[in-house]
Each structure stands twice: as structure tokens, then as C-alpha cells.
Write a structure and sequence with these properties.
Strands 1-3-2 form a 3-stranded mixed beta sheet. With 668 residues, the protein is mainly alpha-helical. 61% of the residues lie in helices and 1% in strands.
């Protein structure tokens, strides 16, 4: 496949942003500044794009918090008989670190991309239920703050992010940390459930004319699968959390052996949620790099249907592998054999994706931008994690490895190497779409390489110390367990700790790039990457209503096919550029819809979300807070029901043909 661009003098494909801005000065609206109308426009917004940005900012805050917790853990384990943390504080730290990274960073960061880009990629003006979308975000925020308020109200949860019974019961964990954990995750679970229903309805009912399911961008497909996983997984963990809450707060006996109950009930409930949760974490990143790789390989995604159906297969088969987390619990040979086979089977659709990504790059004109580097890094690092994961399908091997640092290494190569690297790829790729400027590529590449080196220094040695017998969840290791030779447990623990701080430096480089260098960057061209999918068929950042005219979709990679015409014959494809994205967006604006209805901002989602932690504090401290929270919730629902549905139409009338210009609209 060949792509022939128009001659430089006949094209709006520019080598630098300054030339682009100069050449399109009469169409300055094509690069709208980020709107900053004050804090109310963010706090009360129901715009999916602003909600996506707020999700992202919140997630990055908790990424920093989780990183600080990880740094303390590694300082404690850097040498023998560490004294940085007591045993109790260490238990709290590793519990809250894992909880923060899983539930308060990766999940909401994926939600940030899903909220921002799913409506844009399917050609919609917003999600199906904008106010529910705002409610989802604020419920997440209040749940996260409630969960972390335990640090100042007696200490964090100390039973591990898995919170196995009976260790999570009052006799073994008498502080309120576990109560905050159980109630906080119930609140954030509500946010995930509301968001999942919203996005499912958006994808099914609000796709642009002509966009069949098999013309949707891969990111939307993978996020769509994730919403179904959330829809069915969140109720399972919610049941488990309710049982734990009643066990601790109201003297129930769901996990009490002395009352005839079986503590393995908790493990089954948790891991029935917990293993689909792994794919809830990584599938959005799989979708992101499936968007990035074709753009920077200058060719379509290889085997689009296989990527789609392998993602769906991962979501389906993921429900049948939970008990490989329980091989050491005495399930019996039949159960162990069944779940061993299922664990091997799920490697197949994952391998299909890796093959498709590799063949997408094969023969392409590769551009190693920062986004592309993070995408390739995901493929490599996730493959390492996947290979170590396959060893857990072999029950005797798993039984030896479980509860050692080998499991910690595997999990972090999957989650950090898979989910986190993909999220950073998405940040660099979509940053100009969200904010109108590209992140600095030089700083970005330093960000990538330092993070990759830090990641492998941190988690690579954990494979070795795990196989040498270092157990997980132990707050100290002793000199006499270090082993012989220069590369013993002591050496590798020190390397892992150094790697943690290298990783922290890499993360700091991103924040410098985003918060400092970003301000100095020139305005980005409308099409900085020669993109392919529908979210680019609008201004950068997009207008409040996304599209001036609802786009009609004729092909997968709709924007690419609008820019390029295939002049090849037969099976030979040769594309010549006929239009630029600037010209396409100008045409959309000239033919914009006469009237667009958008929902009005609302503060009731905040009030309703605030009621949930008030009731949760009531469960821990006093029933009167439950009553107060319920009263606030009822008042918020009444207020919500009575407020007008749409904003004033005049506020969002786009320029129809011959109408006002988009420059004027940008000032509304």
C-alpha cells in the first residue's frame, strides 16, 4: 500500500505548527483554546469531555499517591530488617498501594479516555445520560476521598487488597481501616456501574449514521467490552463487600468458621470479580495502542476482525479462570485441572492481539513518536508478563510460586507493562486533541526510556527473589535469608528499590512535560499525526457539541478515507491525498446543523454523590449520619428531577450555512 501526499504547495499538511496557524489564520476557530470559564463550569459540567479530563487529573493525583506508598514499601525492603515502617504500617501501606493503583488510578484513567473519546469516536454529541456521567465522576471522587480519609481516622486498611477472610474480620483487624476499605469500594463501585451502563447505551444507541459495530474504532470496541465486564463484575464484588460490612459492623457470620461458614466463600467472590478486573485494567490500553500503531505505521490495523473478536473472547474467557488464584487453597484435583486448562486457553486470544499488532508494524513506515514508543513498550513488557503468567497455569509450579515475589513481578509486568504504558501512549497521542498542543517529543522520549528502565529494574529482580523464596507481604527479610554470592536476595532487593526511584523520575518527567513544557509548545496542527478515526473530524479541543454536523460514516478509518482516495487497481492499494483535515472540518462547519440541544449544567450530581460517604461514615460511627445522608440523597434526587433538561438553545446554536461564525461561538 502506498500513500501519496499532495504537493507541499497544494496541501495543508505542515512540517510545523507555526506554518499551520499562519496558513489558516482566517479559520482560527479550527484551533480553539481550552475553555476556562471558571470553577463552576467544571464543577457543574455534564460535558463528557470535561468529565473525562477531570477523571484523568484525579487519576494522576492518585497515581502519585500510590507511587509514594510504593516508595515507602521499597525503602522498607531495600536492606535486611528494615525499620522505615512497622509491621502494621507496612500492612496498611501495601494494602492501600494496591487498592489505590487498581481502583483509583488505572480504572479511572481508563474511564477518562472512555468518557472523552467514545462519544467522539462514534460520532455522538455526548454520552446517552450526561448527568449520570457527572454523577459517576463525583461518586468516584467522594468514594476515593472517603477511602483515603482512613489515614487520618485511625489508619488505612491492613488486610491486603484481596482482604482474605477471616483475616479481615474484627478479631484480626480491629481498626476501622477495613471498614473504610469495604465501604469506599462500594461507593466507587457505584461510579463504575453507572458509568458502564451509560457508555453501553451510548455505543449501542448513539453511533453516527452508517457506523455499524464493525466500523467502530478498536478503542471504542475494547472499552465497550470493558463496560460489560464492569456491568457483571461490580455486582459480584459488591455482594462480597456487603457481606464483609455486615460481618464487621453488624455481627453477621458469613465467613466465621466457628459458626459453620467457609472463608473460601470470600475468595471465590473476590476472584470471580478479581480476574475479569485484570482485563478491565488492560483492555482499554489494548484499544489505545490499536489506534496508535496503525497511525504511526502508516497502514491499517492488521486483522481488524480478529482484534475485535479476540478482545471479546478475552472478556468472555476471563470469567472462567478465577480459581488459578486459589490453587494453594485445597480446591481438589478436578477444579485445579479445569482452571489450569482455562488459564492456558486465555493466552490464545491475547497472543492473537500481539501477532496482529506486530504484523501491523511489519512493512510499515514506522514513526517512533513518544506515543509509538509507549505502544511498542506495552507489547514487549506485557508479553513478558504474559509468559510468566502462563507458568501459573501449571498447578505445581503455581503452588511453589504463589505468595512469593514472582507473583508480584508477574502482576506488575501485566498491569504496569500492559495497562500503564498504554495509558501513557494514549496521553501523548490524544493530548493535542484534548488541549490543542502536542507534548514535547524530546521530553516525552526521555519520559519513556527512564520509565522503561525503572520498570525493569524494579520488577525484573522480583522474578529472581521470588524463585529464591522471598515471600510476599513480609515487612522484613533477614540477613541469614539473603543467600550466597554477589547476586543474592540482598542485591536484588536493593536494585528493585533503586529502580523504583528511577521509575519515579520517569513519571516526574511526564509531569514536567505536561505542566511546564506544554505551556511553551506552539499550537498543534489540527492533524498532527495524520490520524484515521472519527474523533479527529472536529476542532482541537472539540467544541461543546463535538460536531457541527453529525457525521455519516462510510468506512472503517472514516477520516483516513475522507482524506485519501484509493487509485490502485485490484488488490493493489495506492492512496493519493485529496483533502486535508482542515478542509474537511471547514466543510463540516459550513454545513452545520441549525440547532443543537445540549443538557444544562447541574450541581445535583455533586449533592447526591456527597450523600454516599455521609451514609458510609454513619455505618462506622453513628446511625444519625445514615439518616442525614439519606435525607441529602432524597433532596438531591428531587432537585435533579425538577430541573430543566436542556440548556438554553441559544447558548449552543452552531453556525448553519450563512450563519454566525465559529469564532463567535467559541466566545459563548
Amino acid at each position: 500500500m502506498a500513500i501519496i501526499e499532495r504537493p507541499a504547495g497544494d496541501s495543508l499538511t505542515y512540517a510545523d505548527a507555526d506554518a499551520a496557524v499562519t496558513a489558516t489564520s482566517s479559520y482560527g476557530y479550527l484551533r480553539r483554546p481550552v475553555e476556562t470559564e471558571g470553577w463552576r463550569s467544571w464543577a457543574f459540567t455534564v460535558d463528557h469531555k470535561k468529565i473525562g479530563i477531570m477523571y484523568g487529573v484525579s487519576a494522576m493525583f492518585f497515581f502519585v499517591l500510590g507511587g509514594l506508598e510504593a516508595g515507602l514499601i521499597r525503602l522498607q525492603l531495600a536492606g535486611p530488617e528494615g525499620t522505615i515502617l512497622s509491621a502494621d504500617k507496612y500492612n496498611q501501606m501495601f494494602t492501600m498501594h494496591a487498592t489505590t493503583m487498581v481502583f483509583l488510578f488505572v480504572m479511572p484513567m481508563a474511564a477518562a479516555f472512555a468518557n472523552y473519546f467514545i462519544p467522539l469516536q462514534v460520532g455522538a454529541r455526548d454520552v446517552a445520560f450526561p448527568r449520570l456521567n457527572a454523577l459517576s465522576f463525583w461518586v468516584f471522587i467522594f468514594g476515593a476521598l472517603f477511602l483515603n480519609s482512613s489515614w487520618i481516622l485511625g489508619g488505612g486498611a491492613d488486610g491486603g487488597w484481596f482482604m482474605y477472610a477471616p483475616n479481615s474480620d474484627v478479631p484480626f483487624s480491629p481498626s476501622n481501616g477495613v471498614d473504610f476499605w469495604a465501604l469506599g469500594l462500594q461507593i466507587t463501585g457505584i461510579a463504575s456501574l453507572v458509568g458502564a451502563i451509560n457508555l453501553i447505551v451510548t455505543v449501542l444507541n448513539m453511533r453516527a449514521p452508517g457506523m455499524s459495530l464493525m466500523k467502530m474504532p478498536i478503542f471504542t470496541w475494547m472499552a465497550f467490552v470493558v463496560q460489560f465486564l464492569l456491568l457483571f463484575a461490580i455486582p459480584v464484588i459488591t455482594v462480597a463487600l456487603f457481606l464483609l460490612m455486615f460481618q464487621r459492623s453488624y455481627d453477621a457470620t458469613f465467613f466465621s468458621v466457628e459458626e459453620g461458614a467457609d472463608p473460601l466463600l470470600w475468595q471465590h467472590l473476590f476472584w470471580i470479580f478479581g480476574h475479569p478486573e485484570v482485563y478491565i485494567l488492560v483492555l482499554p490500553s489494548f484499544g489505545i495502542i490499536s489506534e496508535v500503531l496503525p497511525v504511526f505505521s502508516k497502514k491499517p490495523l492488521f486483522g481488524y476482525p480478529f482484534v475485535v473478536f479476540s478482545g471479546a473472547a478475552i472478556g468472555f474467557v476471563g470469567w472462567g479462570v478465577w480459581a488459578h488464584h486459589m490453587f494453594a487453597s485445597g480446591l481438589g484435583p478436578v477444579s485445579v485441572a479445569v482452571f489450569s486448562v482455562a488459564t492456558m486457553a486465555i493466552a490464545v486470544p491475547t497472543g492473537v492481539k500481539i501477532i496482529n499488532w506486530t504484523l501491523t508494524m511489519w512493512g510499515g513506515k514506522l514513526q517512533f513518536t513518544t506515543a509509538m514508543l509507549f505502544a511498542v513498550g506495552l507489547i514487549v513488557q506485557f508479553t513478558i508478563g504474559g509468559l510468566s503468567g502462563v507458568t501459573h497455569s501449571v498447578a505445581p509450579s503455581d503452588t511453589q510460586q504463589t505468595d512469593t515475589y514472582y507473583i508480584v513481578a508477574h502482576f506488575h509486568y501485566v498491569i504496569f507493562g500492559g495497562a500503564v504504558l498504554g495509558l501513557f501512549s494514549g496521553l501523548y497521542y490524544w493530548w493535542p486533541k484534548m488541549f490543542g498542543k502536542c507534548l514535547n517529543e524530546k521530553w516525552g522520549k526521555w519520559n519513556f526510556w527512564v520509565m522503561i528502565i525503572g520498570m525493569n529494574l524494579t520488577f525484573g529482580p522480583m522474578h529472581i527473589v521470588g524463585l529464591q523464596g522471598q515471600p510476599r507481604r513480609m515487612y522484613q527479610w533477614t540477613e541469614n535469608r539473603a543467600g550466597e554470592g554477589p547476586f543474592n536476595i540482598a542485591t536484588w532487593n536493593l536494585v528493585a528499590t533503586i529502580g523504583t526511584f528511577v521509575l519515579a523520575i520517569g513519571t516526574l518527567l511526564f509531569f514536567i512535560n505536561a505542566l511546564v513544557i506544554h505551556r511553551k509548545q506552539p499550537i498543534a496542527p489540527l492533524d498532527p499525526w495524520d490520524a484515521r478515526s472519527l474523533e479527529w473530524l472536529t476542532t482541537s479541543p472539540p467544541k461543546p457539541h463535538n460536531f457541527d454536523r453529525t457525521p455519516t460514516v462510510h468506512a472503517l478509518d472514516e477520516v483516513f478515507h475522507r482524506k485519501y482516495e484509493d487509485i490502485g487497481e485490484g488488490d493493489e492499494h495506492e492512496y493519493v491525498q485529496r483533502s486535508t483535515l482542515e478542509e474537511l472540518v471547514e466543510e463540516e462547519e459550513r454545513n452545520g446543523d441549525a440547532h443543537i440541544h445540549l443538557p444544562a449544567p447541574s450541581y445535583w450530581p455533586i449533592v447526591l454523590a456527597f450523600a454516599l460517604p455521609v451514609m458510609a461514615y454513619g455505618v462506622i460511627y453513628t446511625t444519625w449520619l445514615i439518616v442525614l445522608g439519606a435525607a441529602i440523597a432524597i433532596a438531591a434526587m428531587f432537585g435533579w428531577a425538577l430541573e430543566p433538561a436542556d440548556a438554553e438553545e441559544s447558548d449552543f446554536d452552531p453556525p448553519a450555512a450563512g450563519g454566525e461564525t465559529s469564532k463567535e461561538l467559541a466566545n459563548v
